């Protein structure tokens, strides 16, 4: 039995996102976001599920916060619904802000640190009607919205994340069609990526100017890709491409003020960089304090099958047409290695998280003096509740979290400046295009009765948070 002890200041938390848990679609002046529109499009989401009600967190917020407190967690990462706070994208809605005001007070009152994400994919539909993230104006609208939320909550929220996973809100949303708005245009995707980065930079500048005392950052998602056959140059090239398409296309502008030369080449046909104007990269690379790291899986990749000219089809959830999110590298193949997979089909590879954190530290955040924080890690499994609604996920989700915490510990030992960890997710919730069928929560939600029941993983995690250590059994 090995016991891994984390630094005394290490933070233990969970994360959620507004559209995935809140429900209350049209209450308190909220208007539709692109996810309302998309979820109500036939074939877009598995089983036709929507976020209309989902966990009904909007009405159950105080008891959800009480549950977090009972687990002894010190930080809660949530996102603000832009369409609740500015229903037309620009005009503040005081009633929408009231909800987050109450949430923050509830958290602070229970000794839980609020960690606020401004954008977790739910763009107001009104802004999508004017082009969404393909329109440069959306970046400035985002900075305005950041200012609106900051004005109301900046006195009590110490940590601000601009964007969650811009890869998803550009490539998965505008190229793959898997996420709202469900477009399948590589050109739109690269423009959206640029405007998301610009919106991030403008929001950082706005937050800094208005409240120099708060911590500011962004959260990016990462797949750690390895060549299926390291001796095959085509596979090595595939790994380079996937690293570029997922990771470096965002990290390099953020930390080095430019797109990587090889990714510019890979995505030249789609037009990566054509949306950039003078001065953009100085805004995008505005200094931040913390990089949020979301990690779920590793992947082995292989080059295209020589001579393959077959039509590009891409399998995804739902019934709408999908294409590859890997713009310019559409024929790269993901090759199963026989590792265990979660209910999402993602390979479980905890060591990938160690390598990722150490690499980020060495190549990006360390030189910039930026801290690291794992803002999401977790797993969906096909839970089997007993008659009382209790899920024993000891050998599935709990093992996944345990092994990834060991990987974080190893990264810290290797010199990565990681301040904390958050399980995705606090609650079972609306898993985007997969709807309510995929469960990531450490707390079970019965979507008929809306009853919450902590799973074995939650009880175990509470003990980890209390003791600051993980026992490998
Ligand atoms: C996060 O997205 C989201 O922030 C959160 O809202 C969501 O509920 C949660 O994760 C669970 O999905 O091509 O095999 O390498 C994570 C989305 C997961 C997208 C991993 C890319 C790569 C699979 N990412 N995925 S693979």
From TrEMBL:
<dbReference type="Pfam" id="PF00232">
    <property type="entry name" value="Glyco_hydro_1"/>
</dbReference>
<dbReference type="GO" id="GO:0016052">
    <property type="term" value="P:carbohydrate catabolic process"/>
</dbReference>
<keyword id="KW-0326">Glycosidase</keyword>
<dbReference type="GO" id="GO:0008422">
    <property type="term" value="F:beta-glucosidase activity"/>
</dbReference>
<dbReference type="InterPro" id="IPR017853">
    <property type="entry name" value="GH"/>
</dbReference>
<dbReference type="GO" id="GO:0005829">
    <property type="term" value="C:cytosol"/>
</dbReference>
<comment type="similarity">
    <text>Belongs to the glycosyl hydrolase 1 family.</text>
</comment>
<protein>
    <submittedName>
        <fullName>Glycosyl hydrolase family protein</fullName>
    </submittedName>
</protein>
<dbReference type="InterPro" id="IPR001360">
    <property type="entry name" value="Glyco_hydro_1"/>
</dbReference>
<keyword id="KW-0378">Hydrolase</keyword>
<dbReference type="InterPro" id="IPR033132">
    <property type="entry name" value="GH_1_N_CS"/>
</dbReference>
């Amino acid at each position: 039995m090995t016991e891994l002890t984390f630094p005394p200041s290490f933070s233990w938390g969970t994360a959620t996102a507004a559209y995935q848990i809140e429900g209350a679609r049209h209450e308190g002046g909220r208007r539709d976001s692109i996810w309302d529109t998309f979820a109500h499009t036939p074939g877009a989401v598995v089983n036709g599920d929507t976020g209309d009600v989902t966990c009904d967190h909007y009405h159950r917020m105080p008891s959800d916060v009480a549950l977090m407190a009972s687990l002894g967690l010190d930080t809660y990462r949530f996102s603000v619904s832009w369409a609740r706070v500015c229903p037309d994208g620009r005009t503040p809605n005081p009633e929408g802000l009231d909800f987050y005001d109450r949430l923050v007070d509830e958290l602070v009152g229970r000794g839980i640190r609020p960690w606020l994400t401004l954008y977790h994919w739910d763009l107001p539909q009104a802004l999508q009607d004017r082009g969404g993230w393909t329109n440069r104006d959306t970046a400035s609208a985002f900075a305005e919205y950041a200012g609106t939320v900051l004005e109301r909550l900046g006195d009590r929220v110490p940590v601000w994340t601009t964007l969650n996973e811009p890869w998803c809100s550009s490539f998965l949303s505008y190229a793959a069609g898997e996420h709202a708005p469900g477009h399948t245009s590589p050109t739109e995707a690269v423009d959206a990526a640029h405007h998301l980065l610009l919106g991030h930079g403008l929001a950082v500048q706005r937050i800094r100017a208005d409240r120099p005392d708060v911590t500011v950052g962004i959260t990016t998602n990462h797949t750690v890709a390895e060549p299926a056959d390291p001796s095959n140059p085509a596979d090595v090239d595939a790994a380079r491409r996937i690293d570029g398409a997922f990771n470096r296309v965002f990290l390099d502008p953020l930390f080095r003020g430019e797109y990587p030369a090889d990714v510019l080449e890979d995505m030249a046909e789609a037009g990566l960089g054509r949306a950039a104007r003078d001065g953009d990269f100085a805004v995008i690379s505005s200094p931040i304090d913390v990089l949020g790291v979301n990690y779920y899986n590793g992947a082995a990749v292989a080059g295209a099958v020589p001579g393959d000219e077959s039509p590009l089809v891409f399998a995804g959830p739902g019934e709408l047409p999908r294409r590859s999110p890997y713009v310019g590298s559409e024929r790269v193949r993901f090759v199963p290695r026989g590792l265990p997979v979660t209910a999402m089909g993602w390979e479980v590879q905890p060591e990938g998280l160690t390598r990722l954190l150490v690499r980020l530290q060495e190549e990006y955040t360390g030189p910039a003096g930026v801290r690291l924080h794992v803002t999401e890690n977790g797993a969906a499994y096909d839970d089997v509740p007993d008659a009382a609604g209790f899920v024993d996920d000891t050998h599935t989700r709990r093992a996944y979290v345990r092994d990834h915490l060991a990987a974080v510990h190893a990264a810290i030992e290797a010199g990565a400046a990681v301040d904390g960890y958050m399980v995705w997710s606090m609650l079972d919730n609306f898993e985007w295009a997969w709807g309510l069928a995929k469960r990531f929560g450490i707390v079970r939600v019965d979507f008929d009765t809306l009853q919450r029941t902590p799973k074995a993983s939650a009880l175990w995690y509470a003990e980890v948070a209390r003791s600051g250590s993980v026992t490998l059994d």
